[in-house]
Amino acid sequence: MAANGGIADDVGFLLSRASGVVARSVNKALAPLGLRVRSYSVLLFACEWTPGITQRQLASVMGLDPSQIVALVDDLEQRDLVTRMPDPADRRNKLITATDEGYQLRDEALRRVEDAHASHFEHLSPAQLDDLRRMLHQIVFADE
Amino acid sequence: MAANGGIADDVGFLLSRASGVVARSVNKALAPLGLRVRSYSVLLFACEWTPGITQRQLASVMGLDPSQIVALVDDLEQRDLVTRMPDPADRRNKLITATDEGYQLRDEALRRVEDAHASHFEHLSPAQLDDLRRMLHQIVFADE
DNA sequence: TATTGTTATACTCTATAACTATA
DNA sequence: TATAGTTATAGAGTATAACAATA
């Protein structure tokens, strides 16, 4: 599975290295906006889901424990980028929705992340990036 | 509902998710051996490099700061899995080399990691895994 | 002066368990 | 009782700065 050329060619090792390189770069690009890669992802999910995404759904889709979502949403909520609205149908759920400010910050964040990504993905064609996306998706959801 | 082509299909996001899924699984597989994915990588590099790898080289190849290598090597050294030998040619360098015990533990670790990987990569052909390796390598070393 | 390894510190991320409120 | 969110805590990972030994 690994080890044609040893640990340096191990897919798990390369995944970790590539993820680290990109995340570091994205964190730097987002720092002026007061975002990190995690809070950025939460903001985008809040923008994309209508009429909002529950914290449980966020935890599931981000691969995190629900307890880790709390602080991320707290931060965005305190900055008026998202709101926590109790779901009328089930008051245990809290629907996370982006505010107008949230959408505006997302637009700026998307531009910065796209620039950061460009330097890392420039040697890959759009078709290759599609293949890459598909394969990563299969690794993440291998058991479904 | 989620938008398609949104953050869930972002290559950086998928890299982070896939890396997390695999690392979690590998950490669990290595736990009985007292290894984690980081110390496992150090052990493998120590096994593969002749006549040893310096801590600076380890930091470079693993994408870490040299200060982070110290504790990793300390741990392996205290368990007699690797040795720190001053390089006669330049006594600032310390060559990290695996002991016989280190090589033995590596063999067992390799088996466990291969099993852990199998469940995540089973839907990908050997050719696809080669493509994946190549693309990840290009992302990591895009600026070289 | 420059480089290798080291220590120290602060912050972020990860993993678990236990609690509350709603159902 | 079961589920969603929350709090708390300990451990692992990340990022910098400064220092001693060696070149």
From TrEMBL, chains A, B:
<dbReference type="InterPro" id="IPR039422">
    <property type="entry name" value="MarR/SlyA-like"/>
</dbReference>
<dbReference type="InterPro" id="IPR036390">
    <property type="entry name" value="WH_DNA-bd_sf"/>
</dbReference>
<dbReference type="Pfam" id="PF01047">
    <property type="entry name" value="MarR"/>
</dbReference>
<dbReference type="InterPro" id="IPR000835">
    <property type="entry name" value="HTH_MarR-typ"/>
</dbReference>
<protein>
    <submittedName>
        <fullName>MarR family winged helix-turn-helix transcriptional regulator</fullName>
    </submittedName>
</protein>
<dbReference type="InterPro" id="IPR036388">
    <property type="entry name" value="WH-like_DNA-bd_sf"/>
</dbReference>
<feature type="domain" description="HTH marR-type">
    <location>
        <begin position="8"/>
        <end position="141"/>
    </location>
</feature>
